[in-house]
Structures are given as C-alpha cells and as structure tokens.
Amino acid sequence: MDAWLDLAERACALGGLAREGLAVQPVDHGKSGAQVLRLDGAAPAILKAVPATDDGAVASLAREAQAMTWLAGRARTPRTYWSGELEGWRVLLTERLPGRPASHLPAAEAEGALARVAGALAALHAKPLADCPFDQRLSTKLAAAHTRLDAGLITPEDFDGRNRGQDPKAMFRRLEARIPLSEDLVLTHGDASLPNFIVPSEGQVGLVDLALFGVADRWHDLALFLRSSARNFPQVDAVAILKASYPLARIDQRRREFYRLLDEFA
After folding, report:
1. Domain residue spans in the chain?
2. Domain 2-95, CATH number (from 3.40.190.80, 2.30.30.100, 3.50.50.60, 3.30.200.20)
3. What is the CA 113 to chain-centroid distance, rounded?
4. Does 30 have pLDDT greater than 70?
5. Where do runs of H (alpha helix) occur along the chain?
6. Exposed end of the chain (fewer CB within 10 Å): N or C?
7. Quick check: 114 and 125 in contact, CB under 8 A?
8. Using one digit for the tens of pLDDT, what is the confidence trace for 101-143?
C-alpha cells in the first residue's frame, strides 16, 4: 500500500490537490480491470491506474476521461484533476462525488435509490445525441465483442450465473441469432450497473465509470440496470420501479435479454 500512497501523493501534487494527511483505500467493486483507489484527505478523490503498457486499458481510461469532459453540464459526472503517466502506470485522478454507490446502500433505502437511478437514466436518455462523438451502436459493440472473443479474452467463469461455464463461441452464436432489427438510440451510460451510480443524500445522482458511454439502444442501459438491481436487491421489484420512474411504454423482453447477453462479451 505504501507504493500506492506514493503514487497517489504524486498524482495529487500534479493535480493541485493537498497531500497532507492523505490516505488511500482500494475500491473492491466493479470489473473494469483498473486499480481503483479512494483517496481521503482535504480534497476527496478517486484515482484509477492501469499499466501503461496495456494499450487497451489505456485507451479505455482515455475514453472515460473524454466522456466525463463531454458530459460536463449535461449530467453529474466527476471533474478530472489530472491524467497522465506515472511510474509505469496511466493514471486518472478525479473528483469523488458525494454520496454512496447505489449498490452499497442499506436495503431499507433500496426502493428510493433505484427510483432515483432510473430517473437519472431517463434524464440522460432524454439529452440530445446529435453532436455526441461517442459511438456505441450495435455494430460497434458487436465488432468489439467479436474481437475480444477471437483474442481469447472471454472466459466462461466470468459469465453470469445462468451462463457460467458455457462455451463462449456457442454463446456468441446465440447472440448473433438474436440481433434486433432496429435500435432505439439515446445517450447511454454503457455500464448501467448500480455501483456506477453515486446517490447523494439529496440532489443529482452522479454517473461514474463511463468508458463505454455513447450513443446506443436505451435497452443496453435498462437491461443492465434491471440485472444489477435484481442482483443487489432481490427483494425489490425493480421492473415496477422502472415503469414508475422511467417513460417506458412496455418492457421489451427480447431486447432486455439480448443486451444482457451482449454484456457477457464486454
């Protein structure tokens, strides 16, 4: 941990943050592959670090920083203090938003939190998308999934419980057989799982982990929101909450299942 503290102190110095009394704590949720540290001190922050030699991880971290910059003023996202290379790591140092991840709230607060997250998704999905430079349309996602599959980066042990252990190539054939004929395009978070929504005691819900942000079918977000809600708060009727908090004509079960399956290859 001393090495991470040293890295954090150097990043804070470059980002103009105070280093005195700085403490670091690993963040143990999410699956981005980055080392994520919670920085406690005069200016609470989040530090993400990936090996500078990992081109894919570096590109993902860069996309996240660019997405946060583009979304500033459109949604509640962290501001960036500093980004660059340090000691063989590519580092992104950002503001730590006030509140707690929706996944980590007490069960008694779950219904209210899920309604607020659904409202945050509705607000994001309602934003104009004409000038968004981030493409996450289905053709882009399928091409990325195919590349990961061919590179051997899809492991059956990482699949959801109902798919765990299945052959990735067979799973991909199932995916291709279910491709929707059209897309309902909106601005999407891209990884709309509950850990990626920061719920404050009051005010706007924050969006984090935005490397997959971009123009895509709204059901990519909604499918992952429902999956994550069921996983974190199985006692709560997330479908009913979504219907009440999001302007949705109906639950599109086919798209819901398709985008949940597609996420296995993300």
Report:
1. 2-95, 100-265
2. 3.30.200.20
3. 17
4. no
5. 2-15, 55-71, 110-125, 138-150, 168-177, 218-232, 238-245, 253-262
6. N
7. no
8. 999 999 999 999 999 999 999 999 999 999 999 999 999 999 9
* Fold observed for domain 100-265: Aminoglycoside 3'-phosphotransferase; Chain: A, domain 2 (3.90.1200)
Report pLDDT for 48. Answer: 96
The neighbouring-strand residues paired with 34 are none
Regarding pTM above 0.90, the answer is: yes
For residues 74 and 66, give the distance between their C-alpha atoms in angstroms, rounded to a whole number: 14
Residue 24 carries which side chain, given as an amino acid letter? V
> How far, in whole angstroms, is CA 50 from its chain's centroid?
16
pLDDT at 28: 75
Residues composing the chain: 266
Catalytic residue ranges: 191
DSSP state, residue 158: G
